[in-house]
Design a protein that fits this description.
Order of helices and strands: HHHHHHHHHHHHHHHHH
Distance between the termini: 60 Å
Number of strands: 0
Number of helices: 17
CATH architecture of the largest domain: Orthogonal Bundle
CATH class of the largest domain: Mainly Alpha
Structural class: mainly alpha
Shape: elongated
Number of domains: 2
Length: 456
């Protein structure tokens, strides 16, 4: 009896002091474009003792530039820098590749992270700083096994996708990926073999996802056909076939196509009567010049410390990327189904506050719809802030009216579409195995019960 009691006390003491582990079950979460994380299980790594000297040598050779690289690549979740890079690329991309590239950076990093977590907890390889006291941990200590390196996984996935869609950047992103791997070794948190295995795993999954989605965007040229009725949008259209993109969560891009726009006479009268003051003008220019929703997700991930939880952060980025991709396809389907005109074409005497009118039809508003999709998804991620997110979605929609480039109807219809698109995505991920993550309740796409009712 005394021996059993002592054994129990020793176990409880060990449990109290043992380090917490980051999402040890994440390797079983559902994935987007690969069958499962286990389908990409890595073989047991060789012993690490021969690599201790390599890590020590890297640390001894560190200079100020090397330390700066450690902190630069350690900022945020493993994919943080890569998400920002691809967002900038696709926002300035006039081809059909941008939306797909943005989608795949999100889903491939997530899928590869899930595969990495399956192998991490299959092999439980310790971090370098944990096996030799001469090795210093130069960043906050990660709470997961070393093999494979999660930052190298993200680098392999993102660099492969960016190089595929933007070949001129292939050498640059490869060098950046090498910086990532070197920084993790020098930080004392990964052995060289951890980084190689991680990078190659990210590469493999990215190549598979590129193959899986090769027919998602149209390959033919636009035939130039457009409706000839009077009063429709005129101009050289941008991405007129984007509404034909194959969707991920939606059944099709036309699943929630709204009815045709009304005659905009009343909308035009309201817009001409509107007298924008300082706040309205500032709001119009703010949403026209910012990657607001991407920046907000980064901010919330930092605020909730989810950047310290690579699978959880990757999951939110992937869900948001799916929302942006499907929302974009649905919005562009409606735009080029109806060719709804813009205010400055409906009344050529009208001068918008914003400097230029976008080169595509106005109905429904892309800003309003995609902002609403993001607001609804973020409300599921961080339900305590639902009111704030919904207000910002309305502010973003109103900014297009205030800027004079959309009728109010464009915005109202777009907001309704956005809610429907987001509801489908929330429903799709509700049983992916991740559950809730936020202190004091559900969240991180654990979300509210209302959000998880089957979308109608």
């Amino acid at each position: 009896m005394q021996k059993s009691t002592l054994t129990l006390l020793l176990f409880l003491l060990w449990a109290a002091v043992a380090p917490a582990q980051t999402e040890p079950g994440a390797g079983r979460w559902k994935t987007w474009f690969i069958p499962s994380g286990k389908a990409y299980s890595l073989p047991k790594p060789a012993g690490y003792k021969a690599e201790v000297a390599q890590v020590l040598a890297r640390q001894q050779a560190l200079d100020a530039a090397g330390r700066q690289q450690i902190h630069y690549w350690n900022a945020g979740a493993p994919g943080y820098r890569w998400y920002k890079m691809v967002n900038t690329l696709w926002m300035n991309d006039t081809s059909y590749n941008g939306a797909l590239a943005n989608l795949l950076v999100g889903t491939a990093i997530y899928d590869a992270t899930i595969a990495a977590w399956d192998s991490k907890y299959a092999h439980h390889r310790p971090r370098p700083f944990a096996v030799d006291k001469r090795i210093k941990c130069l960043i906050p200590k990660p709470e997961s096994p070393a093999y494979p390196c999660e930052h190298s996984v993200a680098a392999g996935a993102a660099a492969t996708i960016i190089a595929h869609f933007y070949p001129a950047l292939a050498d640059s992103v490869q060098r950046l990926a090498e910086q990532v791997m070197a920084s993790r070794i020098a930080a004392g948190v990964a052995f060289p073999s951890d980084t190689r295995a991680g990078f190659e795993l990210g590469q493999r999954i990215a190549r598979q996802e590129i193959e899986e989605t090769q027919h998602y965007t149209p390959k033919m040229a636009w035939d130039g056909k457009r409706p000839q009725e009077p009063g429709l949008w005129q101009g050289t259209p941008s991405l007129p076939l984007a509404g034909r993109n194959k969707t991920v969560a939606l059944d099709s891009s036309s699943q929630f196509r709204p009815g045709p726009p009304p005659d905009f006479a009343k909308d035009m009268a309201e817009l001409k009567a509107f007298q924008p003051g300082f706040r309205a003008t500032a709001n119009a220019f703010f949403f026209a010049s910012q990657s607001y929703w991407d920046d907000l997700l980064n901010q919330k991930i930092f605020e909730y410390n989810l950047h310290l939880n690579p699978p959880r952060a990757a999951r939110l980025y992937a869900i948001s990327a799916v929302g942006m991709y499907d929302g974009f396809a649905a919005c562009w389907d409606a735009k080029y189904a109806y060719w709804g005109t813009r205010p400055d074409q409906y009344d050529t005497t009208f001068q918008p506050i914003l400097i230029f009118t976008p080169p595509f039809p106005g109905y429904p508003s892309g800003h309003a719809m995609l902002g609403c999709v993001m607001a609804e998804l973020y409300s599921d991620f961080f339900p305590a802030e639902r009111v704030y997110f919904q207000k910002r979605a309305k502010d973003g929609a109103e900014s297009r009216f205030q800027g004079g480039i959309h009728f109010r109807t464009d915005n109202e219809v777009a907001l309704e579409m956005g809610k429907k698109v987001a509801a489908v995505i929330v429903w799709k991920v509700k049983d992916d195995g991740a559950g809730g993550a936020l202190p004091g309740g559900k969240g991180a796409a654990g979300g509210s019960a209302a959000a998880h009712r089957e979308p109608k």
